[in-house]
Specification:
Number of domains: 1
CATH class: Alpha Beta
CATH topology: Alpha-Beta Plaits
Order of helices and strands: EHEEHE
Number of strands: 4
Helix content: 25-40%
Structural class: alpha+beta
CATH architecture: 2-Layer Sandwich
Number of helices: 2
Radius of gyration: 12 Å
CATH superfamily: Lrp/AsnC effector binding domain/regulation of amino acid metabolism (RAM) domain
Strand content: 35-45%
Distance between the termini: 17 Å
């Protein structure tokens, strides 16, 4: 059994047309390979994304190359499961 990296990614989206950005970003993020679930939340961040990757490098590419490239995504914060 291969060990997977599991993380929760906190996502902040743009404020212009806020709900539209959050909704479209949520839909786009949910289509990324490795994304298990996406939740719209209230607070400092707008979305919480549960992901699984085969390595930290794959996780990094998923966040940097895919999530942050989505229109409306301003910032992410990664919470990698340690134990």
């Amino acid at each position: 059994m291969k060990l997977m990296v599991t993380a929760f990614i906190l996502v902040k989206v743009g404020t212009s047309e806020h709900l539209n950005f959050a909704k479209s970003a949520k839909e786009d993020i949910s289509r990324i390979k490795g994304v298990k679930s996406v939740y719209g939340v209230f607070g400092r961040y707008d979305l919480v994304v549960q992901v699984e990757a085969t390595s930290l490098e794959e996780l990094s590419r998923m966040i940097m190359d895919k999530m942050r490239a989505i229109p409306g995504v301003l910032a992410t914060e990664s919470l990698i499961i340690g134990y």
